[in-house]
Design goal:
Number of strands: 7
CATH superfamily of the largest domain: NAD(P)-binding Rossmann-like Domain
CATH topology of the largest domain: Rossmann fold
Radius of gyration: 17 Å
Number of helices: 8
Distance between the termini: 34 Å
Shape: globular
Order of helices and strands: EHEHEHEHEHEHHHE
């Protein structure tokens, strides 16, 4: 069913690599025009170039974007207006994890984790909604994590920030519905996905990447680690009008972990 996002105008944060690049690519493949943003401006440009090479010039654009900076969100929304002609899909994908349990986690790392994972969504939605109203119906997709629903003793900052994304999503959804904006807001909760982040994880634990993937797969009832498109396909659904009756919901893509 090609063209599921035909006519959609999408901004995807954290689009330089991994999940963000996959979201941008799949949205474009289904007919959306996409603005790829990332603090890594060269990486975002590379994603846009790959999309345009495959789907034609003018399908994707890119800008450098620090999602923790409210002023840079003003610039990103203006770039969407300029390059795309508007905005009706916002994918808040940018995120980081930090190490340390409650005794060892450094407060500056805690604050950075919240700035990237939570403050970015506050700024992004607040800045984008006026333009999205002009081009409704619209959809906001916030990438949370299964770690926002299931805790671990080793990542209090990540757990709690992703839980905040989950609940912030519901508040935004209810606000948009109450004010009849025709803009929906949902969260996506992946578990382990084979992205460049796992390369760093393997290196930090002195493991071969294949060994790490096997270890992670054993924790998942379906017995395999997800691929970026497993998550991006869900983003396509939430961005499309197929999900027009879905708002304030959480979509778990965890291979069954949360069912245990």
């Amino acid at each position: 069913m090609a063209g599921r996002c035909a006519g959609k105008l999408a901004l995807v944060t954290g689009a330089a690599q991994g999940l963000g690049a996959a979201h941008a690519r799949r949205l474009a493949e289904e007919g959306a025009r996409v603005l790829c943003t990332d603090i890594n401006s060269n990486g975002a440009a590379g994603t846009a170039e790959d999309i345009n090479r495959a789907l034609g010039a003018g399908t994707a654009y890119a800008i450098g974007h620090d999602v923790t900076n409210a002023g840079e969100w003003d610039a990103a929304v203006e770039a969407a207006r300029e390059h795309l002609g508007g905005l009706n899909v916002l994918v808040n994908n940018a995120g980081i994890g930090v190490g340390g349990n409650i005794e060892t986690c450094k407060f500056e790392d805690w604050k950075r984790c919240y700035a990237v994972n939570v403050d970015s969504i506050f700024h992004g939605c607040q800045k984008a909604l006026p333009l999205m109203r002009e081009h409704a119906p619209g959809s906001i997709v916030n990438i949370s994590s299964i770690a926002g629903l299931i805790a671990s003793d080793t990542m209090p900052a990540y757990n709690s920030s992703k839980a905040a994304v989950w609940m912030l999503t519901k508040s935004i959804a209810l606000h948009c519905a109450k004010n009849n904006m025709q803009i929906r807001c949902n969260s996506v909760h992946p578990t382990f996905v084979d992205t460049p982040i796992l390369d760093g994880t393997a290196k930090n634990h002195n493991l071969d990447k294949d060994v790490l993937l096997e270890k992670l797969a054993r924790q998942i009832p379906l017995k395999f680690v997800g691929e970026p498109n497993d998550i991006a396909n869900a983003v396509v659904y939430l961005a499309s009008d197929e999900s027009r009756f879905m708002t304030g919901a959480e979509l778990k893509l965890d291979g069954g972990i949360s069912a245990m």
